[in-house]
Design goal:
40% of the residues lie in helices and 24% in strands. The protein is an alpha+beta fold and 892 residues long. The strands form 6 sheets. A 6-stranded antiparallel sheet has the order 12-11-10-15-14-13, sandwiched between helices. A 5-stranded antiparallel sheet has the order 6-5-9-8-7, sandwiched between helices. A hairpin with a 4-residue loop joins strand 19 and strand 20. The longest helix is centred in the first third of the chain and has 48 residues. The protein is flat, with a radius of gyration of 51 Å. This is Histidine kinase.
Amino acid sequence: MGRRPRSLAGQVFALQVAVVVLLVAAAMLALLVEARRDNSAEARDRTIAVAQTFAHSPGIVTALKAPDPSAVLQPLTEAGRKAAGVDFIVVMDTKGIRYTHPRPELIGKRAVATIGPALAGHVYTESVNGPLGREVQAIVPVRDHVQVVALVAAGMKVEKVTGAVARQIPIILGAGAIALGLATSGTALVARRLRRQTHRLGAAEMNRMYEHHDAVLHAVREGVLIVGNDGRLLLANDEARRLLDLPLDAEGRRIPDLAGLDPGMEELLTSGRPATDEVHLAGSRLLAVNQRPTDRHGGPRGTVATLRDSTELRALSGRAENARERLRLLYDAGLGIGTTLDVVRTAEELTRIAVPRLADFGTVDLAEPVLHGDEPTSTDTEMRRTAVRGIRDDHPLYKIGQLNNFLPSTPQARAFATGRPELVPDLSAAPGWLAQDPERTRAIIDYGIHSLITVPLRARGVIMGMANFWRSEKPQPFEEDDLSLAEELVARAAVSIDNARRYTREHVMAVTLQRSLLPRALPEQSALDVAHRYLPAVSGVSGDWFDVIPLPGSRVALVVGDVVGHGLHAAATMGRLRTAVHNFSTLDLPPDEILHHLDDLVGRIDQEEAETTVDAGITGATCLYAIYDPVSRHCAMARAGHPPAALVRPDGSVSFPDLPAGPPLGLGGMPFETAELEVAEGTQFVLYTDGLIEDRTRDIDVGIELLRQALAGHPDRSPEESCQAVLDALLPDRPKDDVALLIARARAIPPDHVADWDVPFDPAAVAEMRAAVAEKVDDWGLSELAFATELLLSELITNAIRYGSAPVTVRLLYDRTLTCEVADSSSTSPHLRDAGALDEGGRGLFLVAQLAERWGTRYTSQGKVIWAELSLPRSDGSTEGAAWADVLDAEL
């Protein structure tokens, strides 16, 4: 074989023979596997059929109940086994003890079988080593009605496949022989084609071909070197001799013996390692060298190297690569700077793009007003270090957050004053920069930072700060090309920083407006212990709001709402709705009527905006309004498209009352419903907007469940602690929507601070009521208010009897104020009027208005209630409001 290697056609023929033999062997193996699998499946199916047939045959249950089941069943199983062609049919009890077996000596012994699945009522098949050898058996339950009373097992051996394989082997071998014949014919055709393609060249022709090859080798404009395995130069064409200045007798000499070779070139040629476009010096030339081994395709061991003069190309490609890198940097800056409307993050993005592609360190200093959204002035010379990034973290540059006031001699101050960038090639030779902070600047020089470019961040003619680029790793200083690239990079960043600054200003204004429209301090009241949170979204303010409104009779209204949309328009609309809620609350209406009035108001707002703006959309809002009465501990709630409130019971359980949702405000045409709840003292009301539970990454049901988990199990936690716990559990660091949260713990007024009377519908009853009220006020230790209370109630009761309808009731409520209430079944409301000097009536309500701190009327489903509040005495014995002497001296 070494002297006469096999021809290409012979190799192809050998490969084809090997492939045909493998295919024949694979086909036979596949037949054997398939036959064995089919035989196993047939055995399993037959045993299942036999076992089920015998288990369900009539009389088997009766035979099992016989005194000797084996005597009855053994003949039957043997007859069935022979008829079905299986090896055995075994009947066993539920403990696996055999009643029958082909070998009688095994009757009464435990069967080799897994009976658990069959006892559970299932048909179970398995392969076991039984008394008859390796068998496949099926175990089937025998049922008496629904109870499993016995088991039947049928099994047989799996025989080897012989018949099908024996019949198909000749076919396979015949197909293989045909394939070999075709392979032989194909090989002969390929051999003839190869001889035809080589044109039957002889030795002379082949010699001439090599001569032509040699001529081409020396004519190409690329050097070629062939080095033997022993390091000798075997061949060098004319171009290689010229590029390397090789002597005429270079061929045959060892590479280290050739004078004038660069050490790097010598090392490459002697090492024999592969190389691709490695650049080496050869005198004043830059050579691109490629080297490959020659024994990859059966040739002699050695290497072949090609040399190409790339001196001029290298210079051109270097400039082209710099231009490409510059364009790539600017392109990445367009994508990576200004991704957010945040001033600090935009500055950080500028340094992230510049380091290390332009500079080794990058810093950004911004004027202090810019960080707050304001426009800097020419007098704002102080700048705060906003962003720092470098190839290492141990640098001596100013840290983030430091406020710097650069001296007029520094490049930063000059660039800030003139608006033009500054290039400092050598910082150690810049006395103006060194004077800024001698100790720190000397540390910067010692650290290795040697060159600086400072560029003003300028947009719309306003300089907002400075971007500084520092070089330390590269020994070459910054050049003019670097300066122009830095200018373009900073110009793009300046626009983004200015946009972020203006957005920050607008955002601060919107947040300020919205916070001014929200309650600054909660009113004093005794019914609820209240805590609240309001968090504006990072993307802009919206129309979320909340309110706590004291109502007559120590009741308190809780309100939470959300206006659709973001921005100043939503905040302004929220302010209008909050003002409207306050005004409607003074009418003391039930929650559903309050929402009905708000719905009309939102509809009018939409109509006004549609008439003035072409593309005006629907305003839309949601709201939840609740009124809590600490006397009865009842809470009335209604909502308009708002998330349901949560109730935290005193035992720590959390529930969401089934409150009709109602349509959002502004749709119109749909009624609102009020739900009445009775709550225990200590119950917490949790009202919130959808920003608390909704998120793009989770469903609203998941948010409600998270809220439940955050509230549950902490009945003793204060509302303030509950607010913080809820926000920590549900909100990310930067919420995408506004969140308003209101948590109030219910209190109850003690029963001994409430007094009720039914007043007979007779003017003579007024005197009795005055006496009863005076006695009750004295019991409460409010004797100073007895006279005013008697006078006020006598006027209200007299009006109720004279102008109202029975029944008439009186209630005194002792809380932060003394509240007097007179109720009757009439819906006619009294009005305060200016009585003339000679008029006999019309002065009662005027007297009430003078005596009471506040008074008014509220309507109920049974009629109306006229109420008045008297201020409690101070610690010094005085009272707020009108003095009794002033009331008596007033002109009635």
